[in-house]
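Good day; I would like, with your permission, to put a structural problem before you. What I wish to show you is a protein chain and, alongside it, a tokenised description of its three-dimensional fold. I would ask you to consider whether the tokens describe a fold that such a sequence might reasonably adopt. You will find the record immediately after this paragraph:
***
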Amino acid sequence: MRVRAAAVAGFFYPGDPADLSAEVDACLASVPSPPAKTPLPKALIVPHAGYVYSGSIAASAFAQLAPLPGAIRRVVLLGPAHRVFLRGLAAPRVEAFATPLGVVPVDRAAIDGLRDLPQVSVSDVPHAGEHSLEVQLPFLQRVLGAFSVVPLVVGEANDEEVEQVIERLWGGTETLVVVSSDLSHHHDYATARRLDAAACAAIEALDPERLGDDAACGRIPVRGLLRAARRHRLAVHTLDLRSSGDTAGGREQVVGYGAWAFRAEPA
């Protein structure tokens, strides 16, 4: 079996399985549990920095999955390309992704079902060193247990192209869509708070047009998700909005982080 090895274990998160499990569990324990009978989200937006910086923010989203373990069996995972130039979206050729917690199978059938879309390519190169997808997997492993993943690195693409891929993979209640994105980068703390609040307002309004080039590093997959969420009449809930200046860094230059859950509105 062809497996994509963990690329940022020991750097973005602990490389030792016991230490990694303990850190993820500590992050999850540090955030509120969803109220009783809260329905599972259909989609999440989560940050992708090192756990010391954004782990607790990401945990606020992944904790929403805990009440019904086993209900979600497939995760469509989209994140921005940081290391290579990419036109469109890239799915991997490998059959699984590895982390120190084990191996997550790739849903090859789902990827085969995207091959007719001109914006989708199949290559391991954009995935090889990419952290935006990898850092989400240990949280998903601890919360969901067994699941398959459809990993997509997103490069230059328009909103409609991303939405079309998400729609193709939408599925039913067994499928969760996770978009990996940080917010503003390298502004002072006060400026970042202002910019990130504006990005949060755009997400809450399901308005992709208000997310400009500097709003979020994963703005392209986020914008596609917002279009899909609007089409499916999902309600969005802001779970956390902070920056590295609140977690583990100085305030001269910070990176913004947020977490959002998207759920079907009550009938």
Notes: The chain has one domain: 3-31+39-264. The two ends are 44 Å apart (CA to CA).
